[in-house]
Amino acid sequence: MVTSKLLIVGDSFSANTGDLSWTTQLDYQVTNLSAAGSSEYRILKSLQTQNCSKFDRIIIVHTSPNRIYVPFNPLHQNTNTHKNCDLIYQDVKSLADTQPFAKNVAWWFENIFDLDTAMDMHQLIVDKIIDLTTGNKCLHLSFFDIDHPMIYNLHRIWKKRPGDINHLSLQGNLEVAQFVRNNL
Question: Which end of the chain is less enclosed by CB atoms within 10 A, N or C?
Fold first, then answer.
């Protein structure tokens, strides 16, 4: 019988709760607040809705520094999985030929967006999340190539085992679940 409580907050790499997802292969009572397309700021705000002391363990799945928070994204307003999606260049660029909003946002990314600023802001938010989870048994993961001493970089698993379940194949999900079991 599962009695330990686990909170998961992150982006689409942890949003899937289907039977094959690594998030459901863990022996915990799981509260999963992850959402596809979440920026680091959205992850922080989701975490802040919870009383972390009510959980035995916490997993934070950090996202790309290039994903920019927006309170409303008209590109995905009619989808169940991405209605709260934040902006990332690859998404808007792929829709720029058919969506005026996407064309404008792609222009912004190409002409105004500053990667150094985004990296600095991402780091500040990551540090805030780490502060909020200090004192909890917490595992910080990312599937993006992020270099941070407190974050396990699982980018290699995603690149080696891409697929349709949390962007991973079944084998990739099994590997992540085992990694989490070994490190949580």
Answer: N
